[in-house]
């Protein structure tokens, strides 16, 4: 026997479509009519190998390595093996990061509900076939193109595709575009285009989600490498000609000296270490169930100075509990005898809960507290689903005794006019951090635009929100890191302020009703800078608020889990979604917290700061080497003297003062606040440090050329210059390693010990062609290096004062 309530509820809906049968699905799979667009959570293995192997500088180094293999000896070609090792490390780390990303992406992948053989079932997006019937509810993303079959107040936001801000009310027969999402109501649609034919898939073909754009770090490094190339080409040409002329009696020696001058100009490990740092960051965050959908998001969150938080699902847990039901004067007009008002209102609430097939968290709490009434069923003849824009839902109900009434359930300050006596009760409850919904009887139909006019308040449903236990500590972390937290919610401002105050948010005692915010961007930005808690914010306002903050120069992160957060998440510099959030929020967010823990955000910030701070450190090391290499080459060309080093000497120096220490420094903890202007901050130290190192080394080399004569003089000159350059480079490393910790001091000392081992071991002396002759010149080299180190210290401090970051 059919349920009359169910029958009445569906009077306004077409008969449910049973969906495809198993044979029909198999037939479409056989024809290839499957949604086979691959889910890209990272670059493919081939792309990773290609990106690490086929680089501009690997090509330069590779050619120079082949030249050395021809002229020999093999120890002058050690730099080639270093490049091979570095590239292998880069590939391995990125493949590890890819594995982590791919596994997390599968966990966070959307699983739409389709009807097969008359029954709903959740399947992977790739399992959808042509003509599949896909069910939709609030927050669901449309994963393929299609046409609406069923609609129950179905409102779809297509702004991410068309730019149209207002949700579109859909009726049976209307088109649905993949990439749009449901903001209210429910329904079902039939898949008309799947795979690469779908609208969103065609857009994705043009711009893959996982790109390395919008990263100041990577953009800055690209600019630096461009400058390096400009300097390197003319300098290298001059060096080639000068060494060829000077060494005309020994072309092999000329080639070796020429290669020695060119190789250190290339900051080959800088790009590698940046990739490795990002990759290891992804792996570390992956262990904490944090899916980084766009790699630069790690860096971006570290640069954020304002984080906008949606209260529900971020500061509070998703579920709520009904703590109280307060009857108002309107309950007396509900047609019940005194003392029966509360029982009647409970039945109305139960019937409202049953009328919504996809209840939100608030309605679910009401359903749990007031289940569908026993006895003769209530009938629902019309319904209006909840939407964040209007902030209420409704239903036309017929009670068992035949009385018909239209009921609204939503925000009291939206449903009631200002000054209504019931609002005084609401303010008192909101001040305690409680959420309040008003049950009111409407005098007009649900399809009337003025349905809220003249409503009769019947009762207040008081909901208690569950605070996230880790939210307070996370807010304190942001405060300590000088990151402003702005709580932006659609709930009552006083209630949101009370919740934020419980969590210790500074400025929570002055909540602002967003309906009173100025519409002009600059004025809104000033108001946002002054306040910390904003209530009654519409989805479009959230987007406007993000834009206003960005207009005032802020780097903005937005967190959220509901469909009303999608537009703001998309426009924010960094969007962060909860794993349990709607499909739409997960699709547009750069970071997804799969464990739904707001407390994971500090880990992401810390990881980003580690990457940025450490890459800034090691970039200074690499570019100091580039600067002194270019300067030495220029001085050699101008002075018409042989280049002071062989490739093996600079390989040794680079390994001990840059390669090995940079690897450790790039992966070390670093909580320093990320700062802008990466290129300027790196070059302001690298240029003076490189200039001092180049001039001091060349001075020691010229002094050695004057001091040593006879057979073996060239090796002695080179050894003295190598000692000078090593000591200066070691001092640069010692400066870069500050502030000191035990392991950083140990790292510097270990590199010094490595050089001493080479000088003290006969076969290593021979292998690297290093032998200090006499005592006067070696000590002179040490003295020159000591003076250069003192000048370095003074220059470092002067630059810090003259060109502050």
Automatic annotation (TrEMBL):
Residues 1-21 are annotated as: Disordered. It is found in: Cell membrane. The chain crosses the membrane at residues 53-72, 78-95, 227-246, 258-283, 618-643, 649-670, 682-704, 716-736, 743-764, 776-796. It holds the Pfam family E1-E2_ATPase. It comes from Streptomyces roseoverticillatus. Keywords: Membrane, Translocase, Transmembrane, Transmembrane helix. Residues 113-206 form the P-type ATPase A domain. It is a multi-pass membrane protein. SUPFAM superfamilies: Calcium ATPase, transduction domain A (SSF81653), Calcium ATPase, transmembrane domain M (SSF81665), HAD-like (SSF56784). InterPro entries: ATPase_P-typ_cyto_dom_N, ATPase_P-typ_P_site, ATPase_P-typ_TM_dom_sf, ATPase_P-typ_transduc_dom_A_sf, ATPase_P-type_domA, HAD-like_sf, HAD_sf, P_typ_ATPase. This is HAD-IC family P-type ATPase.
């Amino acid at each position: 026997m059919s349920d009359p309530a169910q029958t009445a509820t569906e009077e306004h809906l077409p008969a449910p479509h049973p969906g495809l049968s198993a044979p029909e699905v198999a037939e479409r799979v056989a024809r290839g009519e499957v949604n086979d667009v691959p889910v890209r959570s990272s670059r493919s293995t081939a792309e990773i190998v290609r990106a690490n192997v086929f680089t501009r500088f690997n090509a330069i180094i590779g050619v120079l390595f082949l030249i050395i293999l021809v002229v020999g000896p093999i120890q002058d070609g050690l730099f080639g093996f270093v490049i091979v090792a570095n590239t292998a490390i880069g590939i391995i780390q990125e493949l590890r990061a890819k594995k982590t990303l791919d596994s997390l992406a599968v966990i966070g992948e959307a699983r739409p509900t389709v009807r097969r053989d008359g029954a709903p079932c959740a399947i992977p997006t790739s399992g959808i076939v042509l003509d599949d019937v896909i069910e939709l509810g609030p927050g669901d993303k449309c994963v393929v193109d299609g046409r609406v079959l069923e609609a129950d107040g179905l409102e779809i936001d297509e702004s991410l595709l068309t730019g149209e801000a207002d949700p579109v009310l859909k009726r049976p027969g209307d088109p649905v575009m993949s990439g749009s999402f449901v903001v209210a109501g429910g329904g079902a649609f039939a898949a008309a285009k799947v795979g690469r034919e779908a609208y969103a898939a065609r857009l994705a073909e043009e711009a893959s989600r996982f790109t390395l754009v919008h990263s100041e770090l990577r953009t800055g490094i690209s600019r630096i490498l461009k400058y390096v190339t400009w300097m390197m080409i003319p300098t290298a040409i001059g060096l080639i000609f000068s060494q060829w002329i000077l060494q005309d009696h020994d072309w092999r020696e000329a080639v070796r000296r020429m290669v020695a001058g060119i190789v250190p100009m290339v900051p080959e490990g800088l790009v590698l270490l940046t990739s490795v740092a990002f990759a290891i960051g992804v792996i570390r965050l992956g262990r904490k169930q944090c899916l980084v959908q766009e790699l630069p998001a790690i860096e971006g969150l570290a640069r954020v100075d304002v984080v906008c938080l949606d209260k529900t699902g971020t500061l509070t847990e998703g579920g709520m509990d009904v703590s109280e039901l307060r009857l108002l004067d309107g309950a007396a007009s509900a047609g019940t005898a005194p003392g029966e008002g509360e029982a009647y209102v409970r039945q109305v609430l139960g019937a409202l809960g049953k009328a919504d097939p996809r209840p939100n968290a608030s309605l679910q709490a009401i359903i749990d507290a007031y289940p569908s009434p026993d006895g003769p069923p209530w009938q629902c003849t019309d319904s209006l689903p909840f939407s964040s824009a209007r902030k209420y839902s409704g239903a036309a109900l017929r009670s068992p005794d035949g009385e018909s009434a239209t009921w609204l359930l939503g925000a009291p300050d939206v449903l009631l006019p200002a000054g209504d006596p019931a609002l005084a009760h609401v303010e008192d409850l909101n001040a305690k951090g409680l959420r309040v919904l008003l049950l009111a009887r409407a005098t007009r139909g649900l399809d009337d635009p003025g349905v809220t006019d003249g409503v009769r308040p019947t009762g207040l449903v008081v909901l208690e929100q569950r605070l996230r236990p880790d939210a307070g500590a996370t807010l304190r972390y942001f405060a300590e890191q000088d990151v402003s937290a702005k709580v932006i919610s659609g709930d009552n401002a006083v209630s949101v302020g009370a919740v934020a105050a419980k969590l210790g948010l500074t400025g929570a005692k002055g909540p602002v009703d967003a309906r009173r915010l100025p519409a002009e961007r600059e004025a809104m930005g000033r108001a946002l800078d002054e306040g910390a808690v904003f209530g009654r914010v519409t989805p479009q306002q959230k987007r406007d608020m993000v834009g206003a903050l960005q207009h005032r120069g802020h780097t903005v992160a937005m967190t959220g889990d509901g469909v009303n957060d999608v537009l703001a998440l998309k426009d924010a510099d960094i969007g962060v979604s909860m794993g349990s959030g709607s499909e739409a929020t997960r699709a547009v967010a750069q970071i997804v917290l799969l464990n739904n823990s707001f407390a994971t955000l500090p880990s992401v910030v810390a990881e980003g700061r580690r990457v940025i701070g450490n890459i800034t450190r090691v970039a200074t090391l690499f570019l100091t080497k580039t600067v002194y290499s270019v300067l030495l080459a220029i001085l050699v060309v101008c002075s018409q003297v042989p280049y002071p080093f062989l490739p093996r000497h600079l390989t040794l120096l680079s390994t001990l003062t840059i390669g090995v220490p940079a690897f450790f420094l790039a992966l070390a903890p670093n909580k320093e606040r990320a700062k802008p202007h990466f290129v300027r901050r790196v070059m302001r130290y690298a240029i003076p440090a490189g200039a001092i190192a180049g001039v001091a080394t060349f001075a020691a080399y010229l002094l050695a050329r004057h001091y040593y004569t006879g057979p073996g003089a060239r090796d002695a000159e080179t050894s003295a210059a190598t000692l000078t350059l090593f000591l200066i480079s070691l001092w640069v490393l010692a400066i870069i390693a500050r502030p000191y910790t035990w392991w950083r001091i140990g790292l510097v000392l270990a590199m010094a010990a490595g050089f001493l081992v080479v000088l003290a071991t006969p076969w290593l002396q021979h292998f690297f062609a290093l032998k200090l002759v006499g005592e006067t010149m070696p000590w002179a080299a040490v003295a020159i290096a000591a003076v250069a180190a003192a000048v370095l210290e003074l220059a470092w401090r002067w630059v810090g004062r003259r060109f502050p970051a």
